[in-house]
Design goal:
Length: about 210
């Protein structure tokens, strides 16, 4: 039986791992995440090396608004939970519930991006532009790069939802849901490090 012969209601418990191709895709994605870890690690190292070089701009302690950043963190962590619910619905072959949780994940991701854009605008108004100092350049590069990953994840999950509406929940579409959830968890974990290293340490040191 080919992958395309599987229909909803005849799926295995873990349809995302039902075919060799799907398992290879998951393995390949783990390797991709390993490369992403190295990339983000480089950006973190650059930020830590430059965070005290504020030039004429404001320091981290003067700049950061922890209540807003904490709210954004809670939103993103909640979206990680909703993506878990989506994968659980996938294993239960509940397509409508899965799509519902994926949509909630997208909405929360957009809420996080909205707060981040608002935060950046506020910082620019306070004299913290991209070229203000080495600190500001490293800050916007690291946090902005993560924000770009969130935006990509929102778009990706949206496209996957469209495919499921069109093709149904099969062993072809199921791995896409699972891999997108892996990606979403990864960017959530990266944000926890950003919140700790950039914001909390910056506020304490500032």
């Amino acid at each position: 039986m080919s992958a395309h012969d599987h229909v909803e209601g005849q799926l295995p418990h873990e349809p995302e791992k039902a075919t060799l191709e799907a398992r290879n895709k998951i393995l390949g994605f783990w390797l991709f995440l390993g490369a992403e870890v190295v990339l983000f690690g480089t950006l973190f190292a650059a930020f830590l090396a430059l965070r005290h070089n504020i030039g004429d701009g404001p320091s981290a302690g003067e700049l950061f608004q922890l209540p807003m950043v904490f709210a954004a963190t809670m939103i993103l962590l909640t979206s990680s939970l909703t993506s878990v619910f989506a994968v659980q619905a996938l294993h239960q072959h509940k397509k409508k519930a899965m799509i519902g949780w994926l949509i909630v994940t997208i909405v929360l991701g957009l809420g996080f991006l909205g707060l981040e854009i608002y935060e950046f605008v506020e910082y620019v108004h306070e004299g913290h532009g991209f070229t203000t100092s080495a600190f500001s350049s490293s800050f916007y590069t690291l946090v902005g790069f993560h924000g770009a990953h969130v935006a990509f994840g929102v778009l990706w999950i949206g496209l996957i939802i469209g495919q499921i509406f069109k093709k149904g929940l099969t062993v072809v579409t199921a791995p896409k849901v699972y891999i997108s959830a892996m990606y979403w968890h990864f960017i959530d974990v990266v944000w926890v490090f950003i919140f700790t290293v950039v914001y909390l340490m910056g506020k304490v040191a500032g």
